[in-house]
Amino acid sequence: MNKTSKYQFTIVVPVYNEEDNIYSLEEKLSAFLPQSIYSTCVLFVNDGSSDKSSERIIDVCSRNKDFFYIDLAKNSGLSAAMKAGIDMAQSPYVGYMDADLQTTPEDFNLLLADIKDHELVMGIRANRKDSGFKKVQSKIANGFRRMMTNDNVQDTGCPLKVLHTDCAKKIPFFTGMHRFMPALVMLQEGKIKQIPVRHFPRVAGESKYHLWNRLVAPFVDCFAYRWMRKRYINYQIGNSNIES
Question: 51 in the Ramachandran plot: left (φ > 0), alpha (ψ -120 to 50) or beta?
């Protein structure tokens, strides 16, 4: 039996070369779990890290009964790591946060409070602690994405999100998918809510984002999304006699 099926909520944490943050993640996540409004577990997805992230993840999972992990055989990117975590999750709800701790798991309760009535509840980074250059890049990328997708989402880059697991599993995944999760949920006619959450400066490790994957790649991916949207298949089953 998949151990996540015993919980109501699974937090997926993709990790790529974040060895300096693993023990801080353990502290923050283990403090949140008893406070979560749903029974919650953590699923680390090690995305082929080349540093000590994998051994530290195994270490923290060995002493926390609600922590689990999977290792990807090679580095496959954030969208692939998210897909792997969602595919593994068997709880009714699944969430996602970055390993850089620029958001806090404490704010998951803000999102979980509305998850019953929305397929996706996502954060908006309030008072962002990033550099001015990063903020400008994000503003340009978000504006172009909204124009191309009509998703009306203010901050799709916020890494704090909660979804119904069955909805998340239906999302068509592709490289760069994580930038379009709200738009992809809307293809299923899912309801979305945005809630302000706290944002913190990075205190350990290095950002994996640069001009290409923060600004240029999203522009290219928008056209991939537009192509896919026209061909997306969405259906709902009415009556059936297949169940015994």
Answer: beta
Contacts of 151 (CB under 8 A, 6+ apart): 145, 180, 182, 183, 186, 192
Read off the amino acid at residue 152.
N
Residue 94, CA atoms < 13 Å, CB-side half-sphere: 23
Asked if the model's pLDDT at residue 73 lies above 50, the reply is yes
Using CA of residue 147, residue 164, residue 81, residue 173, what is the dihedral sign?
Answer: negative
First-residue to last-residue Cα distance in the chain: 22
Q: How far is CA 8 from the centre of its chain?
A: 17
Reported pTM: 0.81
pLDDT tens across 160-188, in order? Answer: 999 999 999 988 777 777 777 888 888 88
Q: Cα–Cα distances in Å, from 134 out to 40, 153, 162? A: 32, 18, 25
- Over range 151-160, report the average pLDDT: 75
Quick check: 154 and 182 in contact, CB under 8 A?
no
Instruction: Assign domain 3-129+157-203 one CATH number from 3.40.640.10, 2.40.50.150, 3.90.550.10, 3.60.40.10.
Output: 3.90.550.10
192-197 vs 93-96, strand pairing mode: unpaired
Tell me the two tokens of residue 57.
Answer: 């993840």
- What is the distance of C-alpha 214 from the center of its chain? 16
CA distances from 115 to 21, 53, 93, 162 (A): 28, 31, 8, 7
